[in-house]
Amino acid sequence: MCIIMQITIVIVSIITLIVTFIAYLLPKKLSAGLLLITGSSLIVYLLMSHDFIDAWTPISMMLVTFFSFSSVFDRDKRSKRQQLKQKIAAVNYEIVELNREAKRIIMDIILTGVIGGISLLCLLFVPDSYLTIKYLLVLYLLMMMPQFLNRLADYFFTTVYMLPEQQVIFIISLFEARELPMDELSSIRKESEPDVLRLHPGFTFLAEQKDYTFAFSTVLRLSFPGETICLTPTDSERWFEHWQNFMKRDQAKIEKPILPIWHISNIKRLLWKGYFAIAVKGIAAYTGLLIILTWLHAPWYAIIIVVFLWWLFNMYIADRMLINASDAKKVTAGEIYDIAQEIFLKAGIIGTRLYVIDSSVYNGLATGMHIGKGTIMLTTATTKLSKRKVEAILAHEAIHIKKRDVMINQIGRMAMMAVLGLGIYLFFDELKFLTDHLILFIVIIYIIMLSFPISLSVIAQWTEIRADYLGAKLLGEGSMQMADGLKELALAQDKATEQGLKYSTLDEKSLHRSTVERGNWFVRFLEFQFFPHPPLYWRIQQLRKEQDWSRTKKSWLAARFKESLPDFLRYKSNGL
To answer: Per-residue DSSP letters for 282-331?
Structure first.
């Protein structure tokens, strides 16, 4: 990537950021006009001043910058903020004073700087021949920036109001606001100080929490459906006692001691979480390795071997990395443990470990390279579902362990990359020749780009429907119980997601479609062709048919084609 192109990308990204912010301040119609005119003008300029292929890099960066920062410059959030400010002016309230210490935000700046700095160094030193890696690094940095901007805005501008008559908390910041009804408070917990490694978004996994901790003082963690709020009130004891009175049942927890970040146990957590941030959330670990190998002038076959061994190493430590990244706790006793052990015994994976992640997200996952290193992780929200539904979720994940699906998906990913790389190597001259036939070249490049996620989707979806089918065999009520388990999990997450949106948006945005309902043809096309899981409506429907495995596979293959078609074509086809 030449220096002129790099400068162009920076300028285009800055212009896009400025225009996105101005549009955020303008009325809706003027905003739409500004975005349309500016975006169209930039695209036309780039296409006229650069080759067609070269122009798409800054154009794609323009789009990524716009969509990344739209999460901060959100008109619905601004409307919610204005509405709450108007309400505040007309009611009685008490400000919940928050402790603020410069060292707290400095710690966040340092952690963000380390994570982003590694990616930035890789971006600066990776050879120009690794253009795709450069592109992905820029994308990662662009996606980090809005989170950091929001965090800075929260630190300097957040005010928390308690409305005693309405029994509600208002949290108003620069770019967003939250309205939290106290009758929906599900639990409250005190912690001795912020657990920085758990709160920083760069180190989190399966977590829905909003960090309003602005000092290294006592933290109150307030859990609402779909979201956890972390605060550092000046008078934490008073507010802890006051807010716990709003809960219908006793879910207040004693103070949890949090060790300082420089403690030896936190240094270990930092290493694991840091590696997770650069190897899983970003690609700096692999990029750094490529830079070192290139600097050492390693031959191409040595680079392939080392990268392959690095991949094997990451597969080997995947379970420990996710456990540490999510701060999951091992379950060794209790009802959930007993349910899991019964499922594991039926599946023949007795050595599988069970962990619980403290999270309001409804989810479960299996990890580990083979049965002996298998780990199943559930969120605390998931464990609160009915016993019958938890059994279904555990049975599904148990089959993933038994059939080594984590390894199968990773091998599929590496195989696809190897085929893609080999194809480019073998047909490099032909691809180079096609550059003189621009349209054909672009079509082939897009076909290659789309074939990768589609192929991975085929492998992943096959393992998912197999886990549904075989997991049902482990359950007392078979396929019907598995279908009910998937449905309850999805509906619970839909409800939590809508609840979280209701707290922070003006019009209580709806998901418009439940994940267990059949969507329009384009949504179905994306779900069947690109997503790792087949759509839930189809999985539930298929389980309730109680077909054998052969028919289940055929139904899935047929659905990938038929369900991806517009409805009028499906009806016409059925009529024939």
So the answer is: SSHHHHHHHHHHHHTT--HHHHHHHHHHHHHHHHHTHHHHHHHHHT-EE-
Q: What is the pLDDT of residues 456-502, one digit of tens each?
A: 899 999 999 999 999 999 999 999 999 999 999 999 888 888 888 88
pLDDT at site 322: 86
Residue 478 φ then ψ, to 5°: 60, -140
pTM for this model (two decimals): 0.84
Q: How many residues does the chain have?
A: 576
For residue 108, the number of C-alpha atoms closer than 13 Å in the C-beta half-sphere is 27
How confident is residue 201, by pLDDT bands cut at 50, 70 and 90?
confident
Between CA 71 and CA 77, with CA 75 as vertex, the angle to 5 degrees is 70
Per-residue pLDDT, 378: 94
All residues at 6 or more sequence positions from 253 whose CB lies less than 8 Å from its CB, including other chains: 187, 188, 189, 190
What is the pLDDT, as a whole number, of residue 507? 59
What CA–CA distance (Å, rounded) separates 377 from 530? 25
In terms of pLDDT, which residue wins out, 504 or 100?
A: 100
Give the E-state strand segments of 218-302 in sequence order: 219-224, 227-231, 252-256
Name the residue type at position 341: Q
Which of 201, 82, 100 minimizes the C-alpha distance to 151? 201
H helices of 126-192, in order, are 131-157
Identify the CA nearest to 214 among candidates 231, 236, 195, 229.
Answer: 231
Q: Assign 225 to helix, strand or coil.
A: coil
Question: Among candidates 204, 436, 177, which has minimal Cα distance to 327?
Answer: 204
Supply angle C-alpha 291, 295, 297, rounded to 5: 120
Q: Packing angle between helix 28-49 and helix 52-70, nearest 10 degrees?
A: 160
CB 557 within 8 A of CB 457: no
CA 291 to chain CA centroid, Å, is 28
Strand arrangement, sheet containing 329-330: 329-330, 353-357, 375-379, 364-367
